[in-house]
Amino acid sequence: MLRHHQNKNLLIHYGGDYCGLPVQSDKGPFFQQYLEKLRGVIDSALQQYSRVLAFRIDLRFPVGITLPDDHCTNKVIERFIKSLKAKISNNRKNARQENKYAHDSVVRFVWTREVGSNGKPHYHMAILLNFDAFNALGKFETGRDNMFNRLEQAWASALGLSVEAVRGLVEIPANSAYCLRRNDPQSQADFFYRASYLCKVATKVYGNGQHGFDASRL
């Protein structure tokens, strides 16, 4: 099995599937370790919840605005995740005040850092939540009390900017949300295929001190 020329620890995976799960072969090859982490996050979520809301988002940086000195490091994605977790925790706390049986949700994720042809980094993410707590992203309109606005607010917080300054920078790809079911292998395969894009070898950069990929460990 081939190893990546910039990072010899990473094994390159070819083919149209991984452990029986389909991948976007036209985007390949992929990193085996990344595919395995993606599979682990999905399995972990479905072990805890019988239904999982899983969705894809892209995070981009504004142009022409002064950003924190560390915006080109992964500290910015760490702040985004921390802020999103806090917002979801607060939402669930408020929900339990109205209904003591309201469901909680752990936040699971996979992200990849890529560098475009303009030399600027951006992030692709997959986020997994308890479907009984959150079953949709909501309308993509700023100001609403829904998941989309929590994502937008968390990205603004991570960059130290106003929500207005990051408007349009939290991108929701078409048909990005999936309901994964514990006893429905097809639903899991569909999302694995969609999220396999994050595991591709292309456009990832190594040797700059920044990880190109990470996933939750729950």
Automatic annotation (TrEMBL):
Taxonomic source organism: Pseudomonas fluvialis
Domain of life where this protein originates: Bacteria
Chain ranges of the YagK/YfjJ C-terminal domain: 46-215
Classification via Pfam families: YagK_YfjJ_C
InterPro entries named in the record: YagK_YfjJ_C
Name of this chain's protein: DUF3296 domain-containing protein
